[in-house]
Amino acid sequence: MSKKDPYAALRIKEFNIFLLLRFALVFAWSMQFIVIEWQVYSLTKDPLSLGIIGLMEIIPALSMALFAGHIVDQKEKRNLLALCIALFSLISLGLFLLTWPKIVQDWSTNTILYCIYALVFFGGFLRSFFGPTIFSLIALIVPKKIYPNAATWSSSTWQMASVLGPATAGVLISAIGVHWSLCFVFGLVMFSLLVLTQIKKKPILNPKIGEPVMQSLKEGVKFVFKTKAILGAITLDMVAVLFGGAVALLPIFAQDILKVGSEGFGVLRAAPAVGAFLTMLATAYLPISKNAGMKLLGAIFGFGVCIIVFGLSSVFWISVVALFFSGVTDGVSMVIRQTILQIKTPDHMRGRVSSVNSMFVGSSNELGAFESGVTAKLMGTVTAVVFGGTMTLLTVITTGIVSPSFRKLDLRKDIEEHEKDD
C-alpha cells in the first residue's frame, strides 16, 4: 500500500495533528530567526554580528546534543515535547520584550544585543532536545511500512513553514515592525502547545531505562559510526551546509548589494524553501529510494553550483532563481537523508541517533552562519559565498571518489524489509 499510496501517512489522524504542530513550530522558529537577523544587523551593520548569532546557538546545541538524545530515549516523548515548547515560549516572550519601544529607547545598543545573544544561546540549548523528540515521536505515530512516506510529508511540512515563515517575517517587519512581529511568533508558539494536547502519550520503547549516561551515549555514537549509510549521508550534508551557508548573509545582500529592502529579503529567504517544498511534494509521488547514493551526491553538487551563481549575481531575479534551485537540490538531499535515518535506526536508539545527526547537520547551519560571517568579514561578502559553494563541490567530488560503497547505496531492499515486518 505504501508503494502506491502517496497519502498513506496522511490517512492517520494523529499524524495530521503532528503535521499541524510541526508547521506552527517551524513557522514560529524560522520567522523569529529572520526577525532577529534583521534586528541585529540593523543595530550593528556588521556582518560578523550575523555570524555571532549562529555561534551563540551552536555552542549549547553541540555541547548538549548527545546528552539530550539520551534523555529523549529515556522519557515519554509527548510530555517532553510539551516542556520544550513551553520553554520556547519564554524565549519568544523575552525577544518580544527586548524590542519594546521604551526598552529600545532607554537601553544601550550593546545591552539589547547581548540580551538577544543570551536568548539565542538558551534557544540553542533547547533546540538540542527538539530534534530528537520530534524524530522519535514520528516513529511512534506511524507504522514502519510507511516511514518513507511519513518522512516525506513531515519534511514537506517543515519546508512549507520555512517558505511562509521568512516571507511573512519580511512582510510583517515592513507592515507592523519588529516588535509586533515577535508578538505574532509568541502567539504561534502558544498555539502549537495547544495542538500538542490532541496527541496521546506514547510508550517508552527503550528496554534499558536507567542505563548509565556514558554507556548510553557511547552506544549511540558507536551505532552511527558503524552504520556507513547514516554516517556517509550526514557527513556529506554537514560539510555542504557548513560551506554553503549563504543564507546567513542574506540581510547584507538585501540591504547593501541587491538593495531590495525587507520585502525582497523575505523573498530571498523564502526562495530556497519554496524549491525544497515543491521537490518534496514531488517525491511523495516519485520515490527516490533507487540509487539513493548517487542522487544524494548529485543533489549536493547542484546545491554548490546554485550557491556560486547566487554569490556572483547582482540581479535580483537571478539571485531568487539560484536560491530556488538550491532549495530544489536541498529538498532531494533532505528526503533521502531522513529516509535513511528512519529506516536504519532501531526504535530504542532514535533519540541518540537523531542527536548525533543534529551535531553533524543541524548544528552545521549555525556553524555555517558563523563561517559565512567570518569569511565575509575577511574576504568580502561575494567572495565568501563563492568560496563556500566551491568547497561544497570539492566535498562532493572527493566523497564520490573515496567512497564507492556510498555511490552504490540503494534503499529499496530496506523499505521492502520494513513492509514485511509490518
What key phrases describe this protein's structure?
422 residues, mainly alpha, Growth Hormone, Chain: A, 17 helices
The gist of it:
With about 425 residues, the protein is mainly alpha-helical. The protein has 17 helices and no strands. It has helices at about 15-45, 45-75, 75-100, 100-105, 110-140, 145-175, 175-195, 215-225, 230-245, 250-255, 260-285, 290-310, 315-345, 350-380, 380-400, 405, 410-420.
| Unreliable parts | none
The first-level CATH class of the largest domain is given as Mainly Alpha
* Number of helices in the DSSP assignment: 17
CATH homology group of the largest domain: MFS general substrate transporter like domains
Overall spatial form: globular
Profile the largest sheet: none
Q: How do the helices and strands follow one another from N- to C-terminus? A: HHHHHHHHHHHHHHHHH
Question: What integer is the average pLDDT?
Answer: 81
DSSP strand tally: 0
The fraction of residues assigned to DSSP E strands is under 5%
Q: Just name the CATH architecture of the largest domain.
A: Up-down Bundle
Overall tally of domains: 2
At the fold tier of CATH, the topology name of the largest domain is: Growth Hormone, Chain: A
Cα-based radius of gyration, to the nearest Å: 21 Å
Estimate percent helicity: over 70%
Secondary structural class: mainly alpha
N-to-C terminal Cα separation, in Å? 12 Å
